[in-house]
Amino acid sequence: MDSASRNFIEQMGIIAQRSGSPRISGRISGLLILRGEPVALQEIADTLQVSKASVSTNARLLRDRGMLRLTTVPGERQDYYELVPNPFQSMLDLLSKEMQQAAEDIQQSLSLFDDSQPDARERVAGVQKFYQGSAIFLNDIAQKLADQPIDRPDRGESQ
User: Fold this and answer.
1) What is the pTM of this model?
2) Are residues 32 and 46 in the same domain?
């Protein structure tokens, strides 16, 4: 594997870790982005020099987050993983749904407060508004990603 690929894979791991996910999950994503095709579980483990169990655990995590899917290759008995089409849009869709569910749960709690607790009720309403607004925002971004390619900003680099 060339140094640019290794660097990208490691950067994806660091990005994942910064956001609270296991580093290996980011490294798996990075490898699958580079490969662009299904990769066997054992090959992922060998390439990243980690245990097959760690790859399996983190691939399931990424699958649950809507980024990967388990697939097969005709004639092969191994498990293969690949990125779903538009994996980042899928992740935003999932986050939007989680935020919407949180907003609904908090709305239900909010309805239990009576008029004797106006300050607490107002603070809880603020939390509900945050989750509701976040759900809408993330859904809007996901839809924009689905509808059109992202414009690449000109960074003003001269040649």
Assistant:
1) 0.72
2) yes
